[in-house]
Amino acid sequence: MHAALSLMSVALFGCTSPQADGATSPVADLAVRLHPDFPTLIEVSWEQLDDAEGHVEYAVEGEDWQAAPSSTLSAGPQERRVAGVPFETPVTVRVVSDGGGAAWESAEVAITTGSPPADLPLPTLLVADDGRAEPTGRFLYASLFQYSPPLYGASWLIIVDRRGRLVWAMESPLDAQTFYVRQSRDGTALMWDETRLFDPEASQVHRMKLDGTEEATWPTPAILHAWTELPDESIVWGSYADGTFEKLVELSADGSRRELWDCREFEEAHGSPHTGCLSNSLYWDAATDSFLYSFFTSMTVVQVDHQTGETLESWGQLSDWTFDPPESQFDWQHGVTWTDRGTMLLSTHVSPESDEVVVREYELDSDARVLRQVWSFGEGEGITAENYGEARRLPGGNTLQNTGTTPRVREISPEGDVVWDVAWLDDAGRPADVVIGRSIWLADLYAFLP
After folding, report:
1. What's the pTM?
2. Cα–Cα distances in angstroms (integers) from residue 26 to residues 21, 45, 364, in the given order
């Protein structure tokens, strides 16, 4: 990946240190160095002289100490990692005791993290209202890629902190794009797609730790954008292997594969004039064991039963559902999900005549077959997204919005206030020539270390 960065690794040493209360730190030969491939991961090692409970912590100048998880420190060699430090940042590291005995702390050592991947644009923080932001969202995990229609360029996986600083990055393999990142359902791994538009049979989905340790790989031939993981570690994706009409395909953990649903059959049943159907989002709903499957080619969202492959419902152009008000009908929709309230949430163009991107939330009136808009955000702000974009309701009630080809991620309160806003800009302050793929909040990074 970025092997040249290993040359920047640094090791500094400390010895045992007496404390103000007379306790002596049981830490000797404290050393730090950078991970050779991920130069914001700091590898910490030392000799533990006595058993103790403690943890590593770090501080960036002008900020509070940040603690890594606590653990039992048995006498002998110890190794830990620090995560969440921005690129090219001086940082101080130490080992400290937990409660239950005499307090102690080790000597402090310093190191500067390495540089980000070449050509990777850096984010700019525009708004940060920490008191109103989602409390479980500390780090934004997203994909970022170059896109000059119809051509794609370099693609990266990135993690950004609440201060809008890049704290982790990895470039996707050569000639591959990453559109759709996820956190594994068990919360212990980063997942991402290696989508190969020019060699579709070679496309894959990966499960990986923060240090690049690969835990699993699933072949996902002809994946275009959307995929999801099920609780049994099956992978489901939209495959265009048979041409421009996708099929929903499931690859089980035992390696067996089945086709769940055929878009060609659905469109023919609805008398569609389209010559293909291609998707941009896929959401699995645990309560109903069904998928929300969104197609940009027909401006339609379909609900598919996981077990039977039956089309349960559809909304949009290939549907008899209407919208209230009529001008709230979605167009070029992306990132379709259900909320905990049972409403449908998505990102959409404000109208067929405009690329302005908005978030719309609909209540479903099944008796009247009406999608009734109950909340929206973004209309009149002038932020456009020719392609991509998404919306997701967060546990605390805020909404995460990204605007795709205008590379910007915002968090919006229920009152419609922007409480966090980060953008990728060029030197003139205009949107950079990159696109945000899927983006999600992570509560912590240590769960993703081996």
Report:
1. 0.94
2. 14, 13, 62
402's tokens: 């990204």
Hey, what are 8's tokens? 């920047």
Are the C-beta atoms of 272 and 319 separated by less than 8 Å? Answer: no
Query: Rounded to 5 degrees, what are φ and ψ at 130?
Result: -60, -35
Which run of H or E residues covers position 263? helix 263-269
- Residue 264 belongs to what H/E stretch? helix 263-269
pLDDT in tens, 223-248: 998 999 999 999 999 999 988 999 99
Please choose, from the candidates 251, 298, 246, the residue with its C-alpha nearest in 3D space to the C-alpha of residue 238. 246
Selecting from 2.120.10.30, 3.30.300.30, 2.40.240.10, 2.10.10.90, what CATH number does the domain 123-448 have? 2.120.10.30
Superfamily of domain 3-112: Immunoglobulins (2.60.40.10)
Q: Amino acid letter at 291?
A: F
Instruction: For residue 214, give every residue at least 6 positions away whose Cβ sits within 8 Å of its Cβ, in sequence order, or none.
Output: 206, 207, 208
For the chain, counts of helices (H) and of strands (E): 1, 34
Tokens in use for 421? 């806003």
Please check whether residue 105 is in contact with residue 96, taking contact to mean a CB–CB distance below 8 angstroms. Answer: yes
Across the range 340-362, mean pLDDT stands at 97
> 151 forms bridges with which residues in the sheet?
148
Closest of 432, 448, 375, 440 to residue 147, by C-alpha: 432
Amino acid letter at 156? W
Q: Do 157 and 145 form a contact (C-beta atoms < 8 A)? A: no
